[in-house]
Hints:
The protein is an alpha+beta fold.
Amino acid sequence: MITTHKFNQKHLLADSIMDAQLSKLLHSFQIPVKNTSKSAQFIPHLDVFETNTSFKLMFVLPGFKKENLKIEIDKNYLLLHGERQLVASECETKQHLLESFYGKFSRKIQLPEQIETNSLEAELADGILTIQIPKTELKQNKTQVVIK
């Protein structure tokens, strides 16, 4: 069964503008992925939100402890590294199925230009690592030249 929807031009224009804005925001983050684990592929899921004053990045990291995570800012890149190991008692038991990730991961994300990296805040709660990055005013590269 095929369903069709009728949209008027006003809705199409609004959807087009929203798509363009979302595309621009996602492209400003340019999210390449790097995984250092040899045994399993693990890439923490990421949600990105923007307010008038900051960006909020939320990584899904179930079972990770804050002492096993490292956040670095290098130029305009945020680097997140982490490791989750099997507890010794879990290693000694007979394992039938392991779908959870154990091992190291690394993720590198290019951040937009208008951020204040010195005021970054991070919190790990309920398996979600939330990183709050305040915005700064975008520096204008325009200069007006006076003609003599």
